[in-house]
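Here is one chain, start to finish.
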Amino acid sequence: MTAIAEKTCTTDALEALFALPFNDLLYRAQQVHRQHHEANAIQRSTLLSIKTGGCSEDCGYCSQSAHHGKVEREALLELPEVLAAATAARDKGASRFCMGAAWRGPKESDLERVTEMIRAVKALGLETCVTLGTLKEGQAERLAEAGLDYYNHNIDTAPEFYAQVITTHGQGERFNTLDKVREAGIKVCCGGIVGMGETRRARAALLAELANMSPPPESVPINELVPMPGTPLENAPPLDPFEFIRTIAVARIAMPSSMVRLSAGRQEMSDEQQALCFLAGANSIFYGDKLLTAGNPEADRDESLFQRLGLVAI
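Its structure:
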């Protein structure tokens, strides 16, 4: 697979960063951040589930898996519904609109409808991103022809921990899709989930895998597990907030040019924790009321936080 180049960022090196005194780590991350990004600028994205429930994969964190059966299967949304959501997101200040579908991968008939959505959303002046699962040959090129800006396909966790979370496919399958996306000229949005019971070393290994992609993902969503009832991880112990902030800081240092995004889990974060995440180098958020099936801070709360912190939306 070509998504990983010669490994120049090691798990040992990133684990050593995790172990730094908290203030030292944040200081270093903020220095790196200011060298590559505007200090107080935050990019805002909105995520819409365009096809919910009934996914054939058994991802242990996901309530949309048919193996867990906790989310009712819904059909692919119609174009007017997607356009209405995208227009509302734009009017609330989002600059990127992401569309997610719960399936192993798109059928040809589904892909045709999704490309129509991409073209229509782009016509509103928004950047576009989709997460559609595993892509077959030629599908990435069709998405590129439609004008897709970003394709999201997370690698979720460290290679050595992956099989404890997902058994219906291996992590290598995800890298194969990422290769197709890169070859089609689409930007990569790829990150992971922390708080699934993994060790700190596994978190370092996840970030090392991401940093060693050639090139690293342009967008790196860092999700904190939202335990969903009925899933295998519903009773996972919560991650220490300072450990999550450390993860953001190490991601920033390891991937200086990438947009590091606060994604799932923000609903449970205090304003103070989010502020420290921004200090640690996070410069993108999901903005709106819902992330697929998980809650997200309401737009008004985000606006208030931005004003209190002097942050500027981009």
